What does this fold into?
Amino acid sequence: MDLPFVPYRIKVVERVKSVTRERREELLTKAGYNVFSLPSDSIYVDLLTDSGTSAMSDAQWGAMLQGDEAYAGSRNYYDFEETIRDIFGYKHVIPTHQGRVAENLLFSTLLTKGSVVPNNIHFDTTRANVEYQGAIALDCVIAEGLDPMIDHPFKGNMDLDKLGAAFEKYGDRIPFVMITITNNSGGGQPVSLANIKAVSEFCRDKGVPLIFDACRFAENAWFIKRREDGYAEKSIKEIAREIFSHGDGCTMSAKKDALVNMGGFLCLNNDVWAQEITNLLILIEGFRTYGGLSGRDLAAVAQGLREVLEDDYLTYRIGQVQRMGAQMQERGVPILFPVGGHAVYVDAKRMLPHIPQAEFPAQALTCALYLEGGVRGVEIGSLMFAGTDPDTGAPTFPAMELVRLAVPRRVYTETHLSFVAECCAELMAHGERLGGLEIEYEAPVLRHFTARLKPISGQLIRD
Ligand code: F0G
It folds into this structure.
């Protein structure tokens, strides 16, 4: 029997409507070839993100009915704080309404113009929040982590030579180092505990704190349990505790591994920073025992954090992603290898070699997937990351040109995901008919969210 064990059953369902290809074509044109501007009820399988899209459990919904909505001192906050301290082990727990607010609070307090923040790879909003402070977001992932074809069990690892070089070049302009677990922009790839320990020792030696971007910490812990020597017998919680014991704090988007639709937090050991940030929190988010969330939201996060540590849950969840990736590979679709924890990343450079990076091959593929199958993924390529060289003014392009198909937690069946693999295989079969895109409008920051594009030849897929 090689069917997986499914650690839940369905109690509530949401209707999905069938939409014709003609209608999708109209909607895509209206959306300026940007899938962020599509109405979600025109989508069959929505793999835009695994963020805030989880199906909550009956226990989470039950906990929400017991929200204590007191302005100050809600009992849900104390449970939230205790649950987080139990897993993450940090002294101060500051609630926020999502991950990027935790980042913004930290960065606006600790960064100044010219500061430098090394990370394995900064996620897009993290990078933007660093740069918004006039600071430099420096990616220091190992070389393997930038090559979609190299097999490596921990492609999210930090390159200690790159980190050392960063300290040599920037010295005390670096107020802290970050590690993103799992490394989202590099394919949802895990970081090993050996690497975390080495970076931690390096940071302690330099007297600089280490902060985790912890969104998908449980998925990262699952990979450590499966792939790293000495961890097979440890529980996910024990591994998570060990990870965080090597750092000084974390930012967390609870919309991922806390299995909720909204929420986040910042943890810190440093009393002075925590105090300053709490003052800022009260100014922009809310009082320190709710930080932009309702009492019931805090309750759902606490329960979600308990559920995400279950090995059965993680095995099935990561298994779904792995099976979808394997189906694509069997059909010859070029994907980032090995498949990570939350998403399959299609390699648009290899799938559409005839479209240059300046014409957004991964965005063209993202649009084609919607047009062909009503499947929504997201571009992680030149629309998201291309820039200009500050010295020469020449255009710069990211190393990888990817379409991320992120799987929401506990939402889709194997049938939905097989359909997605099938759509990718169909597109692969007539990839040469796809053409590139050009930009009609772009915002000065985070342009991929609102850009409007159009097919250069007038048609995305040639007849
Ligand atoms: N860090 C990482 C690694 C992320 O993946 C995200 C969000 C954030 C920080 C910000 O968290 O959305 O709660 O403010 N990633 C989502 C995604 C949006 O689709 O990958 P947030």
The radius of gyration is 22 Å. The domain at 21-50+310-455 is CATH 3.90.1150.10 (Aspartate Aminotransferase, domain 1).
